[in-house]
Design a protein that fits this description.
disordered C terminus, 2 domains, 9 helices, 304 residues, Rossmann fold
């Protein structure tokens, strides 16, 4: 039945697109094309062939529902292998260099080093985060794109006044972070993020697969079912590098201007925009809904 179904692939996989299938637990119909040597689970009876095959087609809402059912209990590694195989170089992975992001990156680099990883550079990240980026690149042998805001901090202050983050943090996030996301995802069909349901009430209903109509990309959150404890267990078992800010009481961090250390017993994101009603930067939530905050302007990508 579909509730316990997985998704398999015809193997070998086309790097730009491959045929995805919903399968159930009864037949060996695909053994010839997707044998046990595949990194996925053993093949079974095909239940439904996806229409998202090529030519920039996207899954229907019904297909997204089926994807979420099919992978509801799947091992995260299997989910990631499938995503890498299906989307290939049309997949972009966003990171903020927190523990969830590092777990996701560590898993992905064990599958392939040919992944497009980016971070949104507001110009206000902690010095430790910028240094950690370089360490991560050296550790995994990859390059991580930094996508910057379209205007400098100096120009922002000239136009809108100094320390905008204190007077209007929503506008500051929209300019320095949210507006950069479309450029980061330009030419991509899928955006992978490390957000989890346990991080905050606004993320409690995050789906594994969704479609962002504003960005026109499939949004994938492979760690939605993970907890903070799961992430740190993975870090210990796999010796995954982590941002030194975690050791200083920052379970979640973004810009140094809007982040403080968390006190014992507080929510994981209590240090973000502390004292303000704001709880999200706008990349994932608007009015309590998982979507992207619309923001004007273009952005710039930094060099290597």
């Amino acid at each position: 039945m579909l509730g316990c179904a997985y998704i398999a692939l015809i193997w070998p996989v086309n790097a730009s697109r491959s045929r995805a299938f919903f399968i159930g637990p009864k037949s060996s119909a695909l053994f010839a094309s997707c044998g046990r040597s595949s990194p996925f689970i053993p093949p079974f009876l095909i239940l439904k062939q996806s229409t998202m095959i090529m030519n920039n087609d996207f899954p229907t809402l019904e297909e997204l529902r089926l994807w979420n059912h099919a992978f509801a209990q799947a091992d995260t590694h299997d989910t990631l292998r499938w995503c890498v195989a299906v989307f290939g170089d049309s997949l972009a992975v966003g990171t903020g260099f927190g523990v969830s992001g590092m777990v996701l990156l560590d898993m992905l680099t064990r599958i392939t080093k040919e992944i497009d990883v980016f971070f949104l550079d507001t110009g206000l990240l902690f010095p430790e985060t910028y240094e950690f980026r370089r360490r991560v690149e050296a550790h995994y042998g990859i390059r991580i794109r930094g996508v910057s805001a379209s205007i400098s901090l100096e120009e922002q202050a000239r136009r809108l006044g100094d320390r905008l983050w204190e007077r209007n943090p929503d506008l500051c996030c929209a300019i320095r972070k949210v507006a950069s996301l479309p450029l980061a995802l330009e030419g991509k069909q899928a955006w992978m993020t490390a957000i989890r349901r346990d991080q905050s009430p606004t993320r409690r209903n995050t789906p594994l697969f969704s479609f962002d109509e504003r960005l026109h990309v499939i949004k994938i959150a492979p760690l939605v079912r993970w907890t903070e404890q799961d992430c740190w267990r993975y870090v210990r078992e796999h010796h995954t590098p982590t941002n030194p800010l975690h050791d200083r009481g920052y379970p979640s961090f973004g810009c140094w201007t809007c982040t403080r250390a968390v006190r014992p017993g507080e929510d994981l994101r209590a240090g973000r925009w502390s004292g303000a009603a704001k709880t999200e930067c706008g990349l994932h939530v608007v009015d309590g809904k998982l979507t992207r905050l619309a923001a004007p302007a273009t952005s710039q990508i930094d060099g290597p």
